[in-house]
Design brief:
about 150 residues; alpha+beta; two-stranded antiparallel sheet; 3 helices; 4 strands
């Protein structure tokens, strides 16, 4: 893995975790919005780096027996799913969103869960920003050593 690969992985992760933070921020902003359904970001790794995936890659490489495959790593933002749990029913007969019985459905956002998820996304963003900065300083030192 070269320096450019590190930049690619870091920048891709910055985009993904930035989207993650946006999703959780929207959830937190809509805690008191009736009928709002909590959104959950879905992330996947770019390659199968599980034990099974590595063993399959090694099995397919007949001449490189015993060597680990060249895995690049990384993460992808594959979409958003809605939380299937239902919000609490609240009796508000004059509300514009009330059903025929006068009930509205409260948001199903749990603020503690979304705040914790947003903090984890922020930490992941900061870690990948540090990766990009460390890679940048390594590249600068390499250039200085060439001179």
């Amino acid at each position: 893995m070269g320096l450019l690969d590190s930049f690619d992985i870091g920048s891709q992760a910055l985009k993904v975790h930035g989207k993650r933070i946006d999703v959780h921020a929207k959830n937190i902003a809509n805690i008191d919005t009736p009928n709002y359904v909590r959104k959950i970001p879905v992330l996947n790794s770019t390659e199968d780096i599980s034990f099974h995936g590595i063993m399959n890659a090694m099995k397919n490489d007949a001449f490189g027996v015993g060597t680990l495959p060249d895995l690049q790593g990384g993460v992808n933002f594959t979409g958003i799913v809605e939380d299937p749990t239902l919000g609490e029913k609240i009796y508000k007969p004059g509300h514009p969103d009330a059903d025929e019985n006068g009930y509205i459905r409260a948001s199903n956002v749990n603020p503690m869960v979304d705040i914790a998820d947003a903090l984890m996304a922020q930490r992941a963003y900061e870690a990948n920003l540090a990766l990009v900065n460390i890679t940048k300083s390594m590249a600068q030192r390499a250039i200085e050593n060439i001179r």
